[in-house]
Amino acid sequence: MPEVILTGASGRIEARYSPAKRDNAPIALILHPHPKAGGHMNNPVAVQLYQLFVKRGFATLRFNSRGVGRSQGEYDSGIGELADAATALDWLQASNPAASQTWVAGYQFGAYIGMQLLMRRPETDGFISVSPPTNMYDFSFLAPCPASGLFLHGTADTIVPPVEVERVVNKLRTQKGIVIDYDLVENASHFWQDHLAEVETRVGSYLDKRLAEKPA
Asked: According to the model, what pLDDT value does residue 46 have?
């Protein structure tokens, strides 16, 4: 898991990268929770997502957005963080020009940034959004959503009540040509304490299903 340093608009971006074993392997970018709430690329859920993609042969990158860890710059209310995510995806694509698929996965604030990135990168094949903060940010930009993906949420999430996520999911499901999976985990909180194994199982099963439908 080599450390890599990317050059972003605010300077250095600290990242961890797991290269794939074949040139045409799919790629995945992992986005961490809110910097102002202690979010960073070594968050347990972010690491779990990273490992799930690595295990399936993806060239996988996770990184600290500006002002987090050893990444330079300051928190920028999501605008700069989206620019950092775009920089990271640019680097990942340039490092894997023959990649067969492109995926974006994020947790909490990272899910919000990931979905915005998705709208700007129509080449994206799939997404994973864990505990998306649909009651804190306006997700109406997903019109239309350019890719199929999975929303994973906990029934015991008191920070983002499940009904708030269902509202977004139901709207996206009216679109033709994409399939939105919505998986609710019983008793899981916003922070997934004691439920990381469920993240592994649910996301892993979804990835396996998608890769069986369209091998990477």
From this structure: 98
Q: Is the pLDDT of residue 178 over 70?
A: yes
Sorted by sequence, the CB contacts under 8 Å of residue 115 that are 6+ apart come out as: 106, 127, 129, 132, 139, 141, 142, 145
Total domains in the chain come to: 1
**pLDDT mean across residues, the chain:** 97
- Cβ burial 75-102 (10 Å sphere, 16+ → b, else e): ebeeebbbbbbbbbbebbbeebeebbbb
The string over 14-53, giving b where at least 16 C-beta atoms fall within 10 Å of a residue's C-beta and e elsewhere, is: bbbbbebeeeebbbbbbbbbbbeeebbbebebbbbbbbbb
Regarding pTM above 0.85, the answer is yes
Beta bridge partners of 184: 153
pLDDT at 173 over 80: yes
Q: What is the domain extent for residue 23?
A: 3-213
State residue 179's pLDDT score. 96
What tokens does 96 get? 């894997």
Determine the length of the chain.
Answer: 216
In whole angstroms, what is the distance from residue 21 CA to residue 145 CA? 31
Q: What pLDDT score was predicted for residue 143?
A: 85
Contact 55, 6 (CB under 8 A): no
Query: Judging by beta carbons within 10 Å of its beta carbon (0-12, 13-18, 19+), is residue 57 exposed, middle or buried?
Result: middle
Q: Which residue reads 């994020």 in tokens?
A: 106
Domain of 102: which CATH number? 3.40.50.1820
